[in-house]
Amino acid sequence: MEQEVDSVDTEPLTVGVVRESVAGERRVALVPKLVERLVKRGLKVIVESGAGEGASLADEAFEEAGAQVGNAWDARIVLKVAAPTEEEAARLLPGTVLIGFLKPLSDVDAIAALDKAGITAFAVESIPRITRAQAMDALSSQSSVAGYRAVLLAAQKLPRFFPMLTTAAGTVPPAKVLVLGVGVAGLQALATAKRLGAQPTGYDVRPEVADQVRSVGAQWLDLGIEAVGEGGYARELTEEEREEQKRRLTEATTKFDVVITTALVPGRRAPKLVTAEAVRGMPAGGVVVDLAGETGGNCELTLPGLEVVHHDVTICSPFNLAAEMPGHASELYARNLTELVELLVDAEGRLAIDFTDEIVAGACVAGREKGTA
What global pTM score does this model have? Predict the structure, then answer.
């Protein structure tokens, strides 16, 4: 087993938590309760001043947990949420271990620059989706937050009630909600819609998720098209399958008040599932919440990052919904990163990167070994 062991044994290994600079990013990579956990492992945690402000975590809370407030960019391990900007990357010292959402499939130039600078970078979105890595799965934890927020956004925009109401003035039927793409975000959206009293229905090209849809109290929309892929994702449909899916989905979509889309194919543009014709056929006042906007969107009428109205249907394509709930989103993300950091550190609190480990090798996107030993 080959490992990279920290050559400095007399000084504790430093973990830096930096302040996020991307507009709208309110999450922080570590929270006080997880600082305590790392400190007990013999690590020294340095937090950049103001790093937790967006998540309502003051510097004093980190200090009480055992962290120091100071220059976190010089730490041996630097934790982030969003990928570093070019200016931020220049602040990293050669030999630094960087962990965060680094977009390795879409921002290859930035990854190459990190590699050239001697940074060992671990992209949390590249962590293998295996049982042993579930506690480190930041994609899942943050997608769960996004799915929850998507339903709240839809309920806010819909000019009707979500639940059925029986009043002296008559009975109000429940809103009908369709969720396209039943991964973690989709299942959370279905469960949340159910809790709010709507009638949720889920659709995915992977038939094995039908039982998961039913397990949260939702109905399953069966279009008769399957596309089972690797790693828990759907494979890309053939041209013929896409056309037939489009036709059947267009017909089905017109029966729903709310459509929430979460369908993604790693490394590719998001598939177009909601046609302009489908939007035109939806009930007046309907809502589409497109969570795939950063890769082009699942709706033909989506304008990524914006809210538009077509045919009296509101189409929202928000970026980074998880950042709108920074308290719990940060807490979940911090747990993911803490688990990964502990995998990279030995019992004595020294850096010990084992590139023969499936998780370590899969998540490493830059560095001398680049995930291989």
Answer: 0.88
